[in-house]
Amino acid sequence: MVTLVATGRILYPVAAEPLPPSLSGRALTSGELARAVGVGVETLRYYERRTLLPKPPRNRAGYRQYPPSAVTRVAFIRRAQELGFTLREINELLHLRLDSTTTCSEVEDRVAEKVNEIDTKMDDLGEIRDALERLAERCRTSPPTSHCPFLEELSKQSSRSI
Prior knowledge:
The protein is mainly α. The protein contains six helices and two strands; from the N terminus they run ββαααααα. Strand 1 and strand 2 form a beta hairpin. The radius of gyration is 23 Å and the shape is elongated.
């Protein structure tokens, strides 16, 4: 199994630690699964509600009993989130992953869509940064805050005129 580790803003693939022998090959409780993949128990329940994670059977005491394969599935969900995919998109990727008729080109199309979306967001963020720099430049004369160009601009209806 491979996981992504963030160094600064870049995600690098590294080998994930295998399950400890005491957990390997047997059903996992919510707490064990959550610890194994580094999420909270509530996150697992949320994934269940969003149908990203199948609801597991329960033991006689009512505890959820996840199969060992749930570790891989939750790790997949977390990695996809780290790469910017929404839970809806992750659900689609999970379905593609499980569909034996899916080809890599179909997955590549989804990845290309995500890259285009990220490029658009980066362009938008660049415009926002430029607008903030222009406003900050106008504030350098240090007028009282009652006449601060930045604060006055924020009071306007639309930020598109900045």
